[in-house]
Amino acid sequence: MNGQKRSGFSLLEILLCFAGLSVVMTVIVSASHRVRDHAHTTLCMNNLRQISFAVSQYYNDHKEYPRGLPYDTLSSQLDSYIGASVFICPEDKMELSDSYSQYYVYRGNDVSAFQYVIGCPRHASRSRSVNIFSLQKAQTCNNAKVVANHTEILPGAATTGTITLDDGTTIQSDTVKMILIQSVKLGGGALYTVVRVPDTETGKVTVNATPGTKLEIVTPAVVAGVRGTRFVLDIGYQDDVPYTNVNVEEGVVAVEPLGGDMIDGTSVKAAGFSPILLTKGMSVNIRNRQKPFHFEALTERIVYLRKKIAGYESIGKDSQNVRNYCDWLEKTKTRELAELADDSDNTNETASDTANDAAVNNANPNAAIK
Question: Any idea where the FecR protein domain is (predicted)?
Fold first, then answer.
């Protein structure tokens, strides 16, 4: 019996074979995911490079950079410079037209300093992002942890309350809704964060920044940049025009006006686009000059976002950040249309009064003589 040749495999050998195959499959799947992620990141980086070049061409033609949302979508403003497919990131599932406009920051006429302009935070399971700084080369960065009211949030999230950054910096407001655009770690571990205050929001935002952090608060009127400080933003509307008042309590703040006017008591002068450095005890009040809204492009974007929300919900995917984005655009559009209607009513009322006065004067010429 001992000299007979054994046929087949033992159970142990079969189990070892399956174990080896599972390890090989795990390695193959992991490698394929890395290859796919790298390919998607490379494609997104090329998209952002093309958008960066198109933004520069737009400036050469118009002598200003595209405003972006909520005035218009970036894809609509640049449609004569690059193709529509460039605006879709392969990691942005169910997106039909524009993956990048919500992460674009308008900076007036100056992007010469090292400043975030546009990015995409979706890569490597949202742990890495691709960003354009100062319209130069695209860079990949590790995304930093951001917590809002004790819950971690991702870029695109909207919140009130307290936002806490990875280095301990806090941004606090009980009434103003804030949208996280990006928070990334630069070379050497420095943190760079951009937070947007959407149009239609009013109230105060208080910042306590950790020394060394780079933080920017984008409002409809200014970009307020932190250099290790404490400051308060008072945001609101006056005569239906958005304004931002910046008060520095500690440290230094660089305020980039987005055009508009600088208000000092009763005097008003053009704010321009050059950064204004404020130190402790200083303040500045910037009132934006309203730009025309491209309602057709905004409406189209809202329709696409609603479809995206429906698609997410159909597969059980969280759609809250897309809803925040859509709500911002819808509220802004509703406000602007209401203001246009009010302006039209006032114009018609004035025209009607003028016509009535003219009719009275024509009927009784002596009525106009005092």
Answer: 163-253
Place of tokens 């492009």: 297
- CA 146 to chain CA centroid, Å, is 16
CA dist., res. 248 & res. 274, Å (int): 18
**Considering the entire predicted model, what is its pTM?**
0.81
CA distances from 61 to 54, 83, 326 (A): 11, 18, 30
What distance in Å separates the CA atoms of residue 234 and residue 178, rounded to the nearest whole number? Answer: 13
Give the containing element (helix H, strand E) for 130: strand 128-133
Residue 130 φ/ψ, nearest 5 degrees? -110, 130
Q: Which of 198-207, 219-228, 286-295, 326-335 has the least mean pLDDT?
A: 286-295
Helix (H, G, I), strand (E, B) or coil at 173: strand
Query: Which residues, at least 6 apart from 196, have a Cβ–Cβ distance to it below 8 Å?
Result: 105, 178, 179, 181, 217, 218, 219
Long-range contacts of 317-323 (CB under 8 A, 24+ apart): 317/93, 320/157, 321/154, 321/155, 321/156, 321/157, 321/158, 322/156
